[in-house]
Protein: 3-hydroxyacyl-CoA dehydrogenase
Organism: Maricaulis salignorans
Amino acid sequence: MSVITTQRHGEVLVIISDNPPVNALGQAVRAGLAAGIAEAAGDDAIKAVVIRCEGRTFFAGADITEFGKPPVGPSLPEVVDAIEQCRKPVVAAIHGTALGGGLEVALGCHYRIAIPSAKLGLPEVKLGLLPGAGGTQRLPRVAGVADALTMIVSGNPVTAARALEIGLVDRVADAGSLADAAIAFAREVAGAAGHPVSSLRTDRIAEAANHPQVFDKFIAENSRKLHGFDAPKACIEAVRAAVELPFEQGVKLERDLFMKLVSGTQSRAMRHLFFAERQAAKIDGIPADTPVIDIARVGILGAGTMGGGIAMNFLSAGLPVTLVEREQAALDRGVATIRKNYERTAARGRMTTEQVEQAMGLLTPTLDYGDLADCDLVIEAVFELMEIKKEVFRRLDGIVKPGAILASNTSYLNIDEMAAETERPEAVVGLHFFSPANIMRLLEVVRGASTSPSVLKTVMGLAKRIGKIAVVSGVCPGFIGNRMLSPRQTEAQKLLLEGATPWEVDAALTEFGFPMGPFQMADLAGLDLGWTAEGSTSSTIREVLCERGRRGQKTSKGFYDYDENRRGSPSPETETIIADFAAKSGLPQRKFSGDEIRERLLYPMINEGAKILEEGMAQRASDIDIVWLNGYGWPAFTGGPMFWADTIGLKVVLEGLARHARALGPDFTVSSLLRSKAEAGETFN
Ligand code: 3HC
Ligand code: NAI
């Protein structure tokens, strides 16, 4: 059956797309749309047209799988132009998500009607692109420059209600009656004398034409967020063209910019990440008919930094949580922090006070382990000590109902050892949340030796329900993320002893695109994590910094000195402390270039990633990219560590490691997978 069909309702022709799962605008859809418009144009009995989609959504964009392949006509810009030039009014009937090329089709239509749950956006920037079918020229003309800039540069969609406010849709229909409402709308406008044509409008861009400084202001306000990315700059340039140039010239500029971006490495990297994120949710070797366990109540043990944040994920998703602590004071503190976090969100307008109370109403704080009995999943977030974890698992196993899942939030420890303490090792799994757990989207799901497919499938589904991006890891110290962080930290410390400053090391990574470097990160987290004054041995730079009261941002000094706005500047005291350690180390001192620092920090990470792959600890290279992107701020425009290594060439990485062999030390070993792939000219992804 054709993906596009037409139906006649009196004098209205309805063009219907049915191209699951998301009605992507592949070649067959484009050709069908063009044919539908031609059918309407050639039939005098037809006075108006409706374009709508079957299934879960209106067109969610161009078909991304076609990028990089030879184009087959008609192109999307041609189709959008044909719709706009149709002499009979065309109404877009929008449900689900009208995204990218989908919204561009809607902008080519003369009228737009949407249901309240619909979302409309131009997310191309998230794929390293800009809208390439007239979106940068039509959206400002329809919705005004300020909103168009925000939508196109952020890539975030707006709701139907907001779309109505800014003039992007003309009407909002009742949820159940979109098809009929669109036909009625089409009948209504069929007889009108003229119809709004997006590309001909000037009313919404007139103001910006008189105030061109809006663009400079927008760039200044967003420069930090946009740093390193090519696509947002192109988006801004194209919207500026909508204001300054005639439509045809603006469209040509948009086209040129699109072609440049789509063939560049940044967009290739970001498209890789789009598919990598979806791939990560798929687990090898789990049959499709594997049953899932119903999770109706979650138990959490430990109301500290992590336990509280983890609880918020479930409360926000409407799941009741039983939160257990060992002492009242800690419990009260934990609950107060949860409330404070919600209230802060409400103060920023992102939650109503009703929603705060709703979430808090789902929370049952208690000191009694027995209250966990009826939970379907219990996650422990107590101290990071194996003896304590083992005891906790023995105890939970005796209390929590049979069939329920027992999970650990450990960052480094062996899940299998915990599972061995229970009578239900198949129900034990690692759920490694990242701090702050209510905000960070990454979740490492640690698959133990005995974890059952059903438990794994259940927690992957649950992760999606609470808005996390889950990646499966095998059992190894630090799992995927922290295991790869470890060689980076080691090299960062060593570089200090060889003559590099913390600020040079951090700058090398921020220039690469990380939001912060290792020493800025340490200052933010607090240098005294796991440090006690009594046990101090003054044997590391970090210990001495702590002894001198330099414990990070919270004490206004750590590696850096901080002003009242938490802006850091290089500290002479830190430099002296480092110089003392460097002198004691006897290592020769020298200057390092940014490139050399990056090689020392990043190549050993790639090497560790390769080991993780060859040991089967990650299912695929792209899963490692997803971990580093969402857990550690690896810059998206490089596609993640493994994709980046592929881009620069594995041979280059291998040669770099050989060049730095002496500095890396005798304990450093090169991954055999990295070596064999580099020698064979292969890639990880
Ligand atoms: N092209 C090709 N495949 C797509 C696609 C697209 N635009 N959008 C989604 N898919 C595929 C996904 O890869 C996935 O495939 P899989 O089942 O084999 O893994 C399947 O459709 C379902 O997608 P999700 O799992 O993401 O489904 P959700 O319901 O969670 O989300 C969505 C739906 C919000 C539409 C989300 O898929 C999405 O954001 N899609 C991308 C939207 C986008 O970026 N559009 C712009 C494209 S670029 C463009 O239009 C250029 C133009 O300006 C010229
Ligand atoms: P925390 O010290 O802030 O909180 C631990 C809480 O557990 C304390 O409130 C303590 O009173 C409570 N507790 C200890 N033993 C208990 C028991 N037997 N029964 C009930 N409650 C008990 O520690 P944090 O940072 O929340 O870490 C918890 C776990 O999460 C650790 O395994 C840690 O490795 C892991 N983790 C920590 C991250 C972080 O950034 N802090 C990130 C990811 C994982």
Residues 594-614 form the longest helix (21 residues). The pocket of NAI (ligand 2) is lined by residues 301-307, 324-326, 330, 381-384, 388, 392, 409-411, 433-435 (CB under 6 Å).
